[in-house]
Amino acid sequence: MQTNGTPLHRVGAALTRAWNAVVRDTGPWFFFFVVVYIIVTLKAVTVNAVYDHIFFGTYSVLITTYILSRFLLSYMHKPIRYDPRYEPSVAFVVPAKNEEGNIRETLRRFAEVEYPREKIEVIAINDGSTDGTLKEMQRAHGEVAPHVRRFEIINWTENRGKRAGMATGAFRATHDIVIFIDSDSFIEKDAVRHLVKYFADTAVGAVSGHTDVWNRDTNLLTQMQAIRYYIAFKVYKAAESVFGSVTCCPGCCSAYRRAYIIPLLSSWLHQKFLGTECTFGDDRSLTNFVIRKYRAVYSAEARAHTVVPDSFGVYVRQQQRWKKSWVRETFIASTFMWRKHWVAALSFYSYVFLAFASPIVFFRALVWHPLVLGVLPIVYLLGLLLMLLMHGLYYRARVGPRAWFLAIVNFWFNTVLLMWQLPWAIVTIRDSRWGTR
Amino acid sequence: MYLDISLKKILLLCALGVILYAAVNATFFLKDARYGSTPPFASAALAVEEISLRSLYGFLGVVWDIERRVQSVFGPGTGEVERTARAVPVLTYHRIVNSKNDLNNVTANNFHDQMLTLKEAGWQTITLAEYRAYMRGDITLPEKSFLITFDDGAKESFYPVDPILSALGYSAVMYVIAHAAEIPESTYYLSSTEIRRMLETGRWEIGSHSYDGHRPYSTDSAEGEGLFFADKLWRAEDGRLETVEEFRARVHEDLVHARSDLESTYGGVIETFAFPLGNETGIAGSSNFPEGASITEHEAGEIYALGFLQTSNNVFSFNYPSHRAFIAYRIHVDYDWSGARLLRQLEVGLPKDVPYQDSFAENRGWIAAWGMLDVGTHNLALHSDSDASSASIFLDGTYLWDSYTFDASAHWQSGSISLLVDLIDAKTYDTCAFSPGSVRIQHTESGTTTVAAEKRNALITFGPDVHIGARVHGDVIECTWNYTSVIEVYDRSHGGGVGVQVWNPMLGSASAQLSEVLVRPF
Hints:
heterodimer, A: 437 residues, alpha/beta, 8-stranded mixed sheet, globular, B: 522 residues, TIM Barrel, Jelly Rolls, 2 domains, 8-stranded parallel sheet, 10 helices, 29% helix, elongated
């Protein structure tokens, strides 16, 4: 774009900018609100169903209200500036098992963090890897150690589990803020600043960073997950964060105030549920321990990238693990969430209801009605598609031109396909065979 | 709480909220205004259909218009003089559907083809008012004028149809079941809002299709299969069939109710009536009350000015001004007719001119009133049904013929063969009946036959190529054998068209083949 070009060039450039502003930037927002309009109209039409059938009618109205409220709340989420006078010391804790492909890059990023050298320490735990993870850690040590105050490698010859790794790392850390990073997550240079700024408020015990998908463009599955991650953080976590009740600060990039979690680590480590030790859902569980007394918030500016499954089988197993940990931790959280701010509590319990009701509604629409009434579940599937379309358009509007539509179709497809996972998770809650990976 | 409630955000949210609320309300308002009480999802489907069809036909209409203009300027002239109509056909449809397997309703593709074919052949629709004025003799119409009607007032009679009518500059009449239009949230029938919108397009008129006489009613204590307008119905509260007077009163009430209901709801004058289920059997398909049909016809004639029945094999397919004042006939367009087929149907029904010569290369309008008719390679064969002793055919479009000589060359080997003249319908005509050794002139009036004259004549014998003829003019009816007059009477009372009959006392064996027919002016 020539700023000193002929008047014709300048007019052309200005017109192009205006066109882009309208079509490329505002266009998706326009369609986003068109989809919202269609959804609201659809619900207004079917709202009479509430009288026909209290349970399903309520579900229908509630899910729309819930999802729209998430967008509304996330829009009103307040970002805070980082305070240059508040610079607590941080400790990176990275448990790793069989991650030789990514661990070096994960650790290398710590050297590039924009933060005072003396306030950073790194603790990497090799949790019984059978590949070259340890070697990669040692190579990273060489690269990173000069840039941090202390770099410790803990080597376990036998696998003890991620939870043990995280707990050991937290115990061995000496700094104020513990930042847990997954062994396949890569943080941005300014992530630390944006993570720690929230700890200036002493009520805050945990901060979740914003994680995007690293291998977004591998295939349709990863593109779909990119949208899911983006929405899950930018919309849902932000909505939770308005009230400081983020229910899961994910292990890929989260920070905890060490002073608050040290007393909790022991019970967390030996957590038992229904008689069996808990070996998965470590991050959600730890967050649950923290939010009993403290606040957990979301920092949209603390960005990291993580590697997601690119094969359907691995993806399904991961989702199954997550569902099981969700069931367990939600059960635990519902025992104290009512004490929080009423909007947060209402949102939480609504979400629990919706999550458990979804498979029932799904079954009714896709199995019961067609078999018994001969009615095709067009309205249900259309409603689902519209909801996901709304998410996709939001993603497109915020992130810019990117292939999103097919990913939404994939999202819809997967949602329909994997609706059975939650009931199955409840049934197999004690079965810890599908442990990490 | 980490809430950012800046003024800018609040204003934006409020604005969005207002717009969203207004948009949703406007949607429902529009739906009601346009589709009345139709349920929302059906309205959405109709809206999609309307938008797509109207845009398609809006575009096509322009294209066709340009084609026509170009044709009229650059194309070859037809060389025909514009003639005026001597009779007008009426077409009747029910719904226009997408399924090819619906035996009652024409498919959208066929309808498109039919309308386009007719338009390109020069046929133009008229309004009800024009039809009635023409029948009264007040106005003239171009020769290729016709009226389109749709029965029942269903949504599928309007939405797939109107865009095509608009593109071709056609108009139509919708026969509305008054009660059905009041059914709330119907996805089948047009609501009153939609009918009003239909009337506002200026392309549609409405007529009465009864108040609630279009569904089966019971003729005994069990479920109903009776015809509202033709059968005595079961009175459940009295446990008996109704009397004649009750039948009359019930029919009268429905007809009046329909007219007043439609007039008060839509304004205007509703003077025309289409008999429900008026198909091939007319209203005479009754199961327990043969007189019912004529009572209904009489009652309808007192309340309405024009009543439509469907054509049958007994009547000419077009409506002639001098014919019965109240009843008119409509051609039922079958589900599988292509445009060419419909055009042919109209062309063979057009009033024919004398001289008329037919070598039977194709069927140019011969209708079998009863028996079997087959137009083969340059001959026409007629044969009685296996359980009947006669067969009767007549030539469509000949109602207005008056003074002519009707000659036929036939292969006649059994029974008797007759030439029909002065034919007004399949039950009213004059006959020159030839039997071996004798000839007779007969008058048949509404199915009752009287012999006017009979003569013995040894010349009349079977043969592979006999030449029989009939001559009518003034009050004279003559019959000719080998071009010689063999009998005549002077009590001819009316003119009419031509036909042929065969008769044989042995059931199922009456037959003859015609190789040529020639009608010349007298």
